[in-house]
Design goal:
The protein is mainly alpha-helical. Helix content is about 45%, strand content about 5%.
Length: about 350
């Protein structure tokens, strides 16, 4: 039977059990005990309840009227266990102000193991929130993936959607990356997230194609026309008028296509921006988020179409409306994954999910 370690931290001073752990990360070779309440932990966790039912109290204790139950948890993550039992005892004063992504993931794995996700998840919201506002622009894909795993295990639908979106927007426009799952339960999630990246690439290419097509359609044979004449008609020679092709639509289309090229939005051969450099000094591959930002920042050139005739297609209006429509779609689009849809295995209507989406 395990013995009471020399160092015991009181989660509750009158606790009737001591959890024996291998030691915190700062001194992993020094065992530590956590004095806890079996009643509090049993209410929150059926796993703890079963553990206490099979444990025996220590008989050779001094100074204690009721010997505590000793539970050997030397194989558990001591840092995560300390946080978890403090959450389950409502000891908010003992909780850290923030957790790194890896720490939050380890806590989620432990909560899942001890079947107390529901009891523990609400206490994690401020850690997710802090990570979202502090790391979504600076953290790498590994850190973001750790938070995604934690959000999945804690069943945090809002942060799951937010961080899967952040992960997708940081991925390349050209390649697909499969994150490395740390648990068997999140392996399927890793594959689904990689598939969602491919879908996002396709959606973004389609958006860009539609912007280009809002200009290019004016060059089709059925749109070319003479001034003041419908497409397919030409001036009657008896009228003595010279047959002049109306240039308004085509000139406007050239202006907008040129602006798209200057903004490195279209065509795909201009996507790579050599001014973007990676942390190791090499060229940074353009990401899905980079392109979304380019479209958001794009400003259509001023084009005077006052000479248009009644048969012109009004390319300026068509392009502006298409651009605005694509921006609105991208703003509302859930680039990441919906946790409820993922767990259900099907895409459900937005009203049935905790996160609103199309």
């Amino acid at each position: 039977m395990a013995q009471i370690p020399e160092s015991v931290a009181n989660v509750v001073a009158d606790g009737d059990a001591i959890l024996v752990l291998s030691g915190f990360s700062g001194s992993p070779q020094t065992p530590i005990g956590l004095r806890v309440s079996t009643h509090a932990l049993s209410l929150a966790s059926p796993t703890f309840k079963n553990t206490f039912a099979n444990a025996k109290p220590l008989t050779d204790t001094e100074g204690e009227a009721t010997p505590p139950i000793i539970v050997d948890l030397l194989d558990e993550d001591a840092d995560a266990m300390y946080i978890l039992v403090n959450i389950l005892h409502l000891r908010n004063d003992k909780l850290p102000t923030h957790l790194p992504p890896s720490g939050l993931r380890r806590l989620a794995i432990l909560a899942q193991k001890y079947a107390c996700v529901v009891a523990a998840s609400r206490a994690t919201v401020h850690w997710f929130d802090r990570l979202y506002f502090n790391t979504t622009t600076s953290s790498g894909p590994i850190e973001t993936w750790s938070i995604i795993e934690a959000a999945y295990l804690f069943d945090e639908a809002t942060f799951f959607a937010r961080f899967t979106t952040a992960w997708i927007l940081k991925q390349s426009l050209h390649t697909k990356q499969i994150p490395l799952a740390t648990t068997a339960e999140t392996q399927k999630l890793a594959l689904m997230l990689a598939e969602r990246q491919s879908q996002a690439q396709i959606l973004l290419r389609r958006d860009i194609d539609m912007l280009a097509d809002a200009c290019a359609f004016t060059f089709s044979k059925d749109k070319i026309h003479y001034i003041d004449y419908a497409p397919g008609l030409s001036p009657d020679p008896d009228e003595g008028r010279q047959a002049v092709t109306c240039p308004v639509d085509s000139e406007g289309a050239k202006e907008y296509l040129g602006a798209l090229r200057d903004a490195k939005i279209w065509p795909s051969v201009v996507w790579e921006d050599h001014s973007l450099s990676s942390s190791n000094g090499g060229r940074k591959d353009i990401t899905i988020g980079d392109m979304v930002d380019r479209i958001k920042a794009f400003r259509e050139p001023e084009y005077d179409d006052c000479d248009k005739c009644e048969f012109c297609e009004d390319v300026r209006l068509t392009f502006v409306e298409t651009l605005q429509g694509k921006r609105e779609e991208q703003e509302k689009r859930l680039w990441g994954l919906c946790l409820d849809c993922f767990k259900a295995g099907v895409a459900r209507a937005g009203g049935e999910c905790r996160v609103e989406h199309a």
